[in-house]
Write a structure and sequence with these properties.
By secondary structure, the chain is α/β, with parallel strands linked by helices. Helices cover 26% and strands 23% of the residues. The protein binds nicotinamide-adenine-dinucleotide, ligand AHE and zinc ion (ZN). Nicotinamide-adenine-dinucleotide binds next to α1 and β11.
């Protein structure tokens, strides 16, 4: 079939809206009509050529919601007409990782997914005879996409696509980092570095579980108002501040250090600061941000010897097929907010504007509605 898509032909170039060819679903796969997709900073980082796994030409996008339009042979867990959220972290429930119950990082198809291919090692997308890569196993910047059955979460039919698509990455990542990865307990003091589409969800997750002080850190002064809307109790604008100054201020606000800190910037210097703001003896620092290719983190080992813990989280530690439908329920029941964070809505033709707004710090989340 033909479908409209925003194609990343080359790094650092605007996406081009073209009609591409899409092959139908093979065994174990489903055809999904993407109804809406968010634009996450990870899409921008890949488009900017900063992802060591980045491939071109490709169809980016990994934060979607849509409807199953066709199922391939052997598909049993979803059917035509089901509403689904594509999962860049699948859940096969059979691999060593899924069975371990220690991680959400299903390994069933990670190898081919990282090469921009479907599990059989081929792509379903092409343009004028040239193969286009899939992206993070999702490619939601295409109106129709093909997904492995293990990489879609069936969700309730009454959840609006244009808001629930955000659960496909940002919401689940931020809230899940609090609930699944850090397991923040009531009364804990929390510091969130970077109050964008992910960090604000960390804030609302921390508020939801009953954290005490929730300190937001950003260089953009406009983010203070945003943080306060979702439960932030203190704001620190770190523009012009040295690492030592930031740490001293956080230690003052948290009686010696935070119980939990989160990096939602992707900046490795910030990741170090976040770790060193954690309380001696028990403070945990969770890395959410994706750093540019070639960047490394550093700290004095003494920081860990003295009991601070450095952790990371992908997709908020969520097991997609199991947890995503529950997060949709939290949203529909009013336990978490999504609508106010969606600051801009575009047609696919205008998707490049969403990247411009993100880089200018003017949007929280932009969504393309097909
Ligand atoms: P965003 O652009 O919406 O937000 C980033 C925020 O960080 C902005 O408010 C910006 O002003 C702030 N910031 C930048 N540099 C800073 C600094 N030095 N100090 C303080 N604040 C700073 O991006 P997003 O969509 O929220 O994504 C955030 C990060 O999370 C990105 O690196 C993204 O790739 C990553 N991410 C990771 C996962 C995961 O599963 N681990 C999932 C989604 C996104
Ligand atoms: N490919 C990059 C790393 C990118 C990355 O860490 N992606 C996160 C999701 S970001 C969503 O916005 C993730 O899930 N990672 C686990 C995985 O298996 O990809 C690199 O550095 O090579
Ligand atoms: Zn994302």
């Amino acid at each position: 079939m033909k479908t409209r898509a925003a194609v990343a032909f080359e790094a650092k170039q605007p996406l081009e809206i073209v009609e591409v060819d899409l092959e139908g679903p093979k065994a174990g796969e489903v055809l999904v009509e993407v109804m809406a997709t968010g634009i996450c900073h990870t899409d921008a980082y890949t488009l900017d050529g900063l992802d060591s796994e980045g491939l071109f030409p490709s169809i980016l996008g990994h934060e979607g919601a849509g409807i199953v339009r066709e199922v391939g042979p052997g598909v049993t867990s979803v059917k035509e007409g089901d509403h689904v959220i594509p999962l860049y972290t699948p859940e096969c429930r059979q691999c060593k990782s899924c069975l371990s119950q220690k991680t959400n990082l299903c390994t069933a198809i990670r190898g081919t997914q990282g090469k921009g291919l479907m599990p059989d090692g081929t792509s379903r997308f092409s343009y004028k005879g040239q193969m286009l890569h899939h992206y993070m196993g999702c490619s939601t910047f295409s109106n129709f996409t093909v997904m492995p059955e293990i990489a879609v979460a069936k969700i309730r039919d009454d959840a609006p696509f244009e808001t629930s698509c955000y659960i496909g990455c940002g919401v689940t990542t931020g809230v899940g980092a609090v609930v699944n990865t850090a397991k923040v307990e009531p009364g804990a003091n929390v510091v969130v570095f970077g109050l964008g589409g992910i960090g604000l969800n960390v804030i609302q997750g921390a508020k939801m579980v009953g954290a005490n002080r929730i300190i937001g850190v950003d260089l953009n002064p406009d983010r203070e108002e945003w943080g306060r809307k979702f439960g932030m109790t203190h704001f620190l604008n770190t523009k012009g501040m040295s690492r030592d100054q930031i740490i001293a201020k956080v230690l003052e606000l948290t009686d010696g250090g935070a119980d939990y800190t989160f990096d939602a910037t992707g900046n490795v210097e910030v990741m170090r600061t976040a770790l060193e703001c954690a309380h001696r003896g028990w403070g945990e620092s969770i890395i959410i941000g994706v750093a540019e290719a070639g960047k490394e983190i550093a700290t004095r080992p003494f920081q860990l010897v003295t009991g601070r813990v450095w952790k990371g989280t992908a997709f908020g530690g969520a097991r997609g097929r199991t947890d995503v439908p529950k997060i949709v329920d939290w949203y529909m029941d009013g336990k978490i907010a999504i609508d106010p964070m969606i600051t801009h809505t575009f047609k696919l033709e205008d998707i490049n504007k969403a990247f411009d707004l993100m880089h200018a710090g003017e949007s929280i989340r932009s969504v393309v509605v097909y």
